[in-house]
Amino acid sequence: MVIYLIRHGMTRGNAEKRYIGRTDEPLCKEGREQLKTLHYPRCELLVCSPMERCVESAEILFAGQPMVLCDELCEVDFGDFEGKNHAELDGGSEYQAWIDSGGSKPFPNGEAPDDFRRRCCEGFLRTVTKHSAARSIAFVVHGGTIMSVLDRFAVPHRSYYEWLCGNGRGFRCVFDGKNIFDTESL
Fold this sequence. Notes:
- This protein is an alpha/beta fold.
- The chain has helices spanning about 10-15, 30-35, 50-60, 85-90, 95-100, 115-130, 145-155; strands at about 1-5, 45-50, 70, 135-140, 170-175, 180-185.
- It has a single domain, classed as Phosphoglycerate mutase-like (Rossmann fold, 3-Layer(aba) Sandwich).
- The longest helix is centred in the middle third of the chain and has 18 residues, at about 115-130.
C-alpha cells in the first residue's frame, strides 16, 4: 500500500511559530496559495484530521475527492502552551521544565507526548486495517501526527523530530501492514 503523509498548509499560528494543537485555525492566505502550487497524485482513499486546517488543505490538494475524517489523527493538546510561542513562554518554570525534559513531559493541562503518539499510531493502524484493500491512501494531517507515525513504523528507524516537515510537505512511503518502507520526502 502506498501512503502519502501530508502536513496541512500554513496557518497564521504556524507563521508566528505558535504552539497550535487543538485551536481550530483555518489556513492563512499564504498557506492556501502555497498549496495551490503543489500537486500530489490522487489516491483511492483520502483521510484527514477533522481540524479545519487539514480539511481545507485536503479540499485544495484533492479537489472534489471525498474524505474520511479520523479524530485520532488530531494534533497534540498543548494545554497551557496552546497559542503561545517560545518568546512568550521563555523564562516560565513549567516551560523550562518541559524543555529540559526534551519534550517528554506532559504539557501542563494538556496531553502527554506518549499518549498523543499512541493515539496517532492507533488511528493510523485502524484506518489502514479497515481499508486494507486500498492500494493508496493520502493522509492530510498535522506535523506531530506524521512524526508519530513515522517514528513508530518507519524502517530504518529515525527519531521523532527527524521526521519534521514543512507545511504542505510530507512523505511518500510503502506500508506492508506492519512497517513503513521506502520513505521519500515530498
